[in-house]
Design goal:
The structure is a homodimer of 294-residue chains.
Chain A (H helix, E strand, L loop, with lengths): L2 E4 L4 E4 L6 E7 L5 H8 L4 H13 L3 E5 L7 H15 L4 E4 L3 H10 L5 E6 L2 H13 L3 E5 L10 H18 L7 E3 L12 H16 L17 H15 L3 E4 L4 H13 L7 H19 L4
Parallel strand pairs in A: 3-4, 3-9, 4-5, 5-6, 6-7, 7-8
Antiparallel strand pairs in A: 1-2
Helix pairs in contact in A: 2-3, 3-4, 4-5, 6-7, 8-9
Chain lengths: 294, 294
C-alpha cells in the first residue's frame, strides 16, 4: 500500500516495499525557548537553518509545527509553510493540535501534504477528515480516544480499525492515505512499553497493511546514550513494519542506522544508496583532514 | 524456553525473555594468518589477549575454533579449552567441523558447553548428537542438508522440524538444548537474503519457540560501513526473535546496539545494565582526558 505525498515538484512514496520515509522533526518550537521568542517576534530565520540541516541530513519530508503560545498559530503556520516551500522541494507534514491551523496550512500548501494528526475521537475526525479529503491530503491517525492512551496492542488495533472504517466509509478517504501512529512511549516509563509498540506495528501491518509513522525521539527520554537508543529503536521498528518516523534527521548515527536497515530489508538494491552515502562521508572526511588550518 | 550453558562456576541462560547472549567469535584462526602460524608452532598466547578483549567487551560466551590446516585439531582444541577455562569463567561454544575435535573438546570441558554445529544431515546428527547427549551439552543446528543452503524460509522450517524431531525422538535430547541457526548470509549476495533470515527467525520462534543463534559478522561482507551494518542487523534480528549471536564483541558500537535492543525489548528492567554501561564509559573517558601525557 502506497501513501504518496508531494510538493509542487517532488513526489515521495511511503510503503512497505520502499526506503524508509524520514520526516524531520526539527521545525517545532516545543522545548525551544529561543525559537519560540523569535517566532513570537515574527523572525522565521531559524527555519532556514533547520530546513538546510535536515535536508543535508537526509530528511525526505519535513514536519512543521508552529504551536507557540500567544501567537496567531494559523497565520504563523501559513508563513512558515510558504517559506519552507520556497527553500526546499521536500513535502511537508503539517502538524498542529488546532484545527484552524491545519486548515490554514492546507490552504497555502502546494502539493499533497501529510496532516498530523487525528485520533479515534469522533469529533476530531468530523472536524479534520472532510478537510483532508477536500485538499486531497493524507493524514496521521493515533489509535487513542477520549480516555488515556491504550497500553495494550489489542485496544490499539480496535481503534485503528475504527479510524480506517470511519475515514473510508464516512469521509470517503482512500485507505492508503491514512498513516497510523502505533504510539511509541519512553522506555523509562515502563520496561514493556516499547514491546507493546512493536507488537502493535506487527499486528497493524498484518491486519491492515497500511503505512505507519511515529515520533521516534521520545523513546529514549530520561536515559543516557539517547542517540544510540534512538538509532537502535528505529531499525527494530522497521523490522516489524514501521514505514516512516517523525525523527531527528540531523544526527548521522540515527540516519545511518535507518539507511542500514533499508539495505538489510532489501529496500536499497545492491546497496547503491548505502555505498554512495559512505563515499560522500569519506570524501568529506578527507577534505576536512586536508583543509589548511584557518 | 531456556538453554542453560555453564562453566565450572558460572551459568548462562539463553531465552526469549533473557538479555541477548553474546558469543564472542574471535578465537578462530579463519582469515588470521599470524594466529594460524602461532597455533601451528604451539604458541597459544594470542588466545589470552582474545579472551581478555572479549570479556572486557561484553561477551557472555566464547566460541573456540581451532581449525588450522596441518595440525592435530583435537589436541589443539583441548589445549585451547583448558587454557581458556583457566582464564575466564565464561561458558564456551566448542566450534569445529571435525567430529573428533568436538569429542576431544567435550572430554576436557568443565560445565555444559554449546557444540557448534550439526546440520539436518542424518549422518552428521548420528555422529554428533549421541556425544552431545553423553556430555550433557547443548548444540547449534543449521537447517540445511546435503543440497545447498535453502534460500526459502519454508524449506528452513521443514529442516528445523526434522532436526528437532530427530534430536528429541531418536537421540533423547531436550528440545531446549537445540539452538537453531536460521542462516544469515551477506546482503551483498542478494538484496532479499537478510529478509529471508528475518522471516525464518520469526517463523521458527512462532512454530517451535526454541532459541536461535547465527554468525552475525558476514552479513556486511563486501560493504563499506560494516560495523554500522552489523550494529543494525542484530537489533532487527532480536526484534523478530533471535536470542543469541556468534559475533564481534570487541567493537563497542555493536555491543552497545545489542544492549540498547535488550533495553527496548524489556530485558534490562529500568535500564540498570544500560545506565551502568554508560557510567563506566563516561568514567573511562573522563580518566582518559585527565590522565597526564606519557
Amino acid at each position: 500500500m502506497h501513501t504518496v505525498l508531494s510538493s509542487g515538484t517532488k513526489e515521495i512514496t511511503i510503503g512497505h516495499d520502499q526506503p524508509f520515509c524520514l520526516i524531520g522533526e526539527r521545525i517545532n518550537p516545543t522545548g525551544r525557548r529561543i525559537f519560540q521568542e523569535q517566532l513570537r517576534a515574527g523572525d522565521l530565520s531559524a527555519i532556514e537553518r533547520d530546513v538546510a540541516a535536515q535536508v543535508a541530513g537526509g530528511a525526505t519530508v519535513l514536519d512543521v509545527n508552529m504551536g507557540v503560545p500567544l501567537t496567531d498559530e494559523p497565520e504563523l503556520l501559513k508563513k512558515a509553510i510558504k517559506l519552507i516551500q520556497s527553500l526546499t522541494d521536500l513535502p511537508i507534514c503539517i502538524d498542529s493540535s488546532v484545527v484552524e491551523a491545519l486548515e490554514a496550512g492546507l490552504s497555502v500548501y502546494e502539493g499533497r501534504a501529510l496532516v498530523n494528526s487525528i485520533t479515534a475521537e469522533d469529533d476530531r475526525m468530523a472536524e479534520i477528515l472532510p478537510m483532508v479529503k477536500h485538499y486531497g491530503a493524507a493524514v496521521v491517525a493515533l489509535p487513542n480516544d477520549h480516555d488515556e492512551i491504550p497500553m495494550e496492542a489489542d485496544k490499539r488495533l480496535v481503534l485503528t480499525k475504527k479510524i480506517l472504517d470511519t475515514a473510508v466509509d464516512t469521509y470517503g478517504l482512500a485507505v492508503e492515505d491514512i498513516v497510523i501512529d502505533p504510539l511509541a512511549m519512553p522506555i523509562g516509563a515502563d520496561p514493556n512499553i516499547v514491546n507493546v509498540a512493536y507488537e502493535t506495528i506487527a499486528r497493524i501491518r498484518e491486519a491492515f497493511g497500511v503505512n505507519m509513522t511515529l515520533g521516534a525521539s521520545n523513546i529514549s527520554f530520561g536515559m543516557p546514550g539517547r542517540h544510540t537508543i534512538n538509532a537502535t529503536f528505529l531499525p527494530m521498528a522497521m523490522a516489524v513494519g514501521l514505514t516512516s518516523a517523525i525523527m531527528d534527521t540531523r544526527t548521522p548515527q540515527i540516519v545511518e542506522a535507518v539507511k542500514a536497515a533499508d539495505l538489510l530489508l532489501g529496500h536499497d538494491e545492491w546497496g547503491s544508496t548505502w555505498i554512495s552515502m559512505f563515499r560522500a562521508k569519506q570524501a568529506a572526511e578527507k577534505l576536512a583532514v586536508e583543509a589548511p588550518a584557518p
